[in-house]
Amino acid sequence: MTTEIPGVAGYGVNAAALAAQYESITFEEVYRDLIHFLPASPVSVLDIGAGSGRDAAALTCRGYQVVAVEPTPELRREGQVRHGALGIEWVDDHLPTLKVTRQAKRRFGLILLGAVWMHLDLPERKAAMEAVAGLVVDGGQVFMSLRHGPIPAGRRMFDVSAEETANLAAEHGLYCHSRCEREDALGRSGVRWSFLALQRFTLKPRTDGLDEDAVRAGRPA
User: Do the Cβ atoms of 58 and 27 come closer than 8 Å?
Assistant: First the structure.
C-alpha cells in the first residue's frame, strides 16, 4: 500500500499539463537572480521535487551530474520521457525525510528546492531542513524558491516567509547570502516568489560583505 504524500496532492492527475507549464519557461528565466552563484566547476546536484526535469536537464547540459528526486510517478515519467537521453538519475523520494536519498549516503555541491518548500507545514519544514543540510557538502549551496499568493484548489500550501526560511536554515549551518522577491514568471494574478541562495559552512561566515567568487568556490565570503 502506497502512503499518500499530502504535499503532492493534485499533481499526478494533472501531470501532462503541469509538465507543459513547467517547460514553458527556462531554468535561466526562473533562476535569473541566482544563476551567477552556480559553482564555478561542475559538481553533483540534487534537484528535490524535480517535476518535469526542466532544471535537472538544464544543469545536466551545463556539465553537472544531476540526481532528480520526484515523488509523483506521473511527473517522474514525464521527465524521463522528455529528458531521457541526458543521463539524469531519477529517484522516487520525498520531503521531509528524504529517506531513500539519505540512505545512499551521498552529498551534493548544489541542491535545488524549486517550488516545493511551501507544501510543508512547520514541523515538516524543520525536519526537512535538517535532512537537506545533511546532504550538502561543506561550502555547497542550496537554491530555494517560495510561492506567495492564492492557493490553487486542491493543493496543500502554506505561505512561508523568506525570513523564517533563512532563520531555520541558519540553525543547520546553511547561511543565506542572497535573497530577492519578484513577480510570477507565468503572470498569475497575486502570485509572487521569494528566491534564496544558502551556503553551508561548518563555521558561520562573515556577514560584512559578499565575495561572489568565494561563494562559487565554496569558501567563506
Answer: yes
